[in-house]
Amino acid sequence: ETGVTQSPTHLIKTRGQQVTLRCSSQSGHNTVSWYQQALGQGPQFIFQYYREEENGRGNFPPRFSGLQFPNYSSELNVNALELDDSALYLCASSFLAGNYEQYFGPGTRLTVT
Amino acid sequence: GNSVTQMEGPVTLSEEAFLTINCTYTATGYPSLFWYVQYPGEGLQLLLKATKADDKGSNKGFEATYRKETTSFHLEKGSVQVSDSAVYFCALSERNDMRFGAGTRLTVKP
Fold first, then answer.
1. What is the pLDDT of residues A20-35, one digit of tens each?
2. DSSP string covering B47-105, please?
3. Could you tell me the sign of the dihedral formed by the alpha carbons of A14, A16, A17, A19, in that order?
4. How confident is the model over B46-53, as a mean pLDDT?
């Protein structure tokens, strides 16, 4: 069984640029959630995708957007990067939307300068 | 809205000491509750879970009981090891998102 993988591991961008982060879900999982974890804080829910549709969203602006593909992998896109977007971005997959445990990838560390 | 409040750290213990990390929650319905652990430089790993009131989750010597009457899900371990040093997150899940506490950093000294 393959776990959740994310790419890239680290990324440095300049304020105003756009970034795309990628996530491959664990085998057999059809739901992907994205989280932002600022240094020293708990993860904050960005959104969730289930069967290629957005299935819930946290308190993040529209410049945070996502996609889920037929193979259940997912992308997180962030436009017009701000310094405060610097964080660890975590992807988590689960079998069904709802109250099921989520399995996390190692994260992508984004630094915005 | 739903939220989780965790005991603030950091917590420093000697090996074989007893561990308690407090977690309380606020929820409108009947959430599932989780403890996740994050080792340095890694993502989150599920440690244990409980899906309904009075359920006890356990794993690797850690335990937590879902207490609806006190809205709590405290993490305990009878004898910690140096390898337990990590950040521990309490979380709840209801509907489509998971809410995390701020995390408690545990350091275990030999």
1. 999 999 888 889 999 9
2. EEEE-STT-EEEETTEEEE-BTTTTB--EEESS--GGG-EEEEEEEEETTEEEE---EE
3. positive
4. 94
How many CB pairs (< 8 A) connect A and B? 62
- Residue B54: count of CB within 10 angstroms of its CB: 10
Residue A97 neighbours by CB under 8 Å, 6+ apart: A31, A48, A50, A55, A56, B96
The amino acid that residue B71 corresponds to is: T
Give, in order, the Cα–Cα distances in Å from B98 to each of A1, A101, B12, B34, B109.
24, 9, 28, 9, 32
Pairing of strands A44-50, A53-57: antiparallel
Q: What is the dihedral of CA A101, B107, A44, A75, to 10 degrees?
A: -70
Express each pLDDT in B70-96 by its tens digit.
999 999 999 999 999 999 999 998 876
Chain A from 17 to 76: CB within 8 A of any B CB? 33, 35, 40-45, 48, 55-56, 58
Our CA-based measurement puts residue A54 at a distance from the nearest CA of chain B, in whole angstroms, of 10
**Interatomic CA distance for residues A74 and A91, integer angstroms:** 9
Distance from CA of B43 to the nearest CA of A (A): 4
Answer yes or no: are the C-beta atoms of B20 and B34 closer than 8 Å.
Answer: no
